[in-house]
């Protein structure tokens, strides 16, 4: 009889340890699944932020837009706006008032258009993509004054921040790029 009771206790201990291992495996699997979804959403938000930066360059190189005196590209618009001081200012993805704003939507980039309409970058999952552009300063171009004609051409320096988010995630991913554009010197 003592042996039967011992076998039963041993069987219960084995069953308990198997249950603990099973619960641990399920918990680990759920955690890994959540991490994978989070990484996927962060990757999609980063792609949206990169697309927002590319949209600024697309619009700034659009010859149809540049030839239309009634429209401004993001760099020219930023040049006419507030000056960005990297030591004192922040180029936030959430501040619309002080910087030049553009939206990337699921519509294709079209020549001759300012991309300011609201909409989603992609619908499944719902992803948003937008940019902020700010003018930093005008400076002499390094090493090129003899090549480009001296003091009548300068480098205009801009900061471009691309922002992206997936609506089911509380995280916004941002990427920042500094750009220098050759332009006539201010008088």
Automatic annotation (TrEMBL):
InterPro entries hit by this protein: PilX_N_dom
Domain named Type 4 fimbrial biogenesis protein PilX N-terminal: residues: 4-53
Domain of life, per lineage: Bacteria
Official protein name in the record: Type 4 fimbrial biogenesis protein PilX N-terminal domain-containing protein
Organism of provenance: Alteromonas halophila
